[in-house]
Design a protein that fits this description.
197 residues; alpha/beta; Immunoglobulin-like; six-stranded mixed sheet; 3 helices; disordered C terminus
């Protein structure tokens, strides 16, 4: 609270000082009205050195590139849920967004997302998982567990109450189908070795 008062009083003092300084400068200006014969143009061209033009152009292009990368090419940090006693579990910290904002789980197994809200903003007071028909309030500085079971592989979103902050839950097919192929291959290799003996 004290810091707010110091900042506000500093800004007010700066504004008063600027007003006094600019008032003195205005009093010293020549207030001649342009004559009707003088030509009034909209803008007067100011020549700039070529290196200034190049620096401004390069800076603008760099900022455009940074925005394109930030919004289109940057990948959110993903994290796979850990299996604990038959439940896939992960803690999602809510602080100016969701961290991690991309969660990977397996289909057909129960999931528990533990939301720990650190941000005081009203937007993040609630989390919604619309595909699973879940909406829960998130108390400040407390862990709120949300459990559900995704049966179908795919990508499902979770959002704040105002739909401004988003996260993704990627549901992958179960590993049982992937593990069957190496087992079958090893069994056929063993059968081939037995026939050669």
């Amino acid at each position: 609270m004290f810091i707010k008062k110091v900042i506000i009083s500093s800004l007010a003092s700066f504004g008063v000082a600027l007003g006094v300084a600019s008032g003195g400068a205005v009093a010293q200006m020549n207030h001649e009205m342009p004559s009707e014969n003088s030509q009034t143009t909209q803008f007067r061209r100011i020549e700039q050195p070529l290196w200034v033009k190049g620096a401004v152009t390069a800076g603008g292009l760099a900022l455009v590139g940074l925005e394109l990368w930030w919004f289109l090419l940057s990948k959110p940090k993903s994290q796979k849920a850990q299996d604990k006693q038959g439940i896939q579990e992960i803690t999602v910290t809510v602080d100016g967004g969701y961290e991690p904002s991309y969660v990977v789980v397996n289909a057909g197994q129960r999931v528990r997302l533990n939301f720990l809200r650190r941000d005081k903003s009203s937007c993040l007071e609630e989390v919604r998982l619309p595909d699973f028909h879940i909406a829960k309030d998130l108390p400040l500085n407390q862990v709120t567990p949300i459990e559900f079971q995704p049966d179908e592989p795919g990508k499902y979103t979770f959002t704040c109450g105002m739909n401004m902050f988003r996260g993704v839950i990627e549901v992958q097919p179960t590993d049982s189908a992937l593990q069957a192929t190496p087992t079958t291959a090893s069994q056929s290799t063993q059968q081939l070795l037995r026939t050669c003996d």
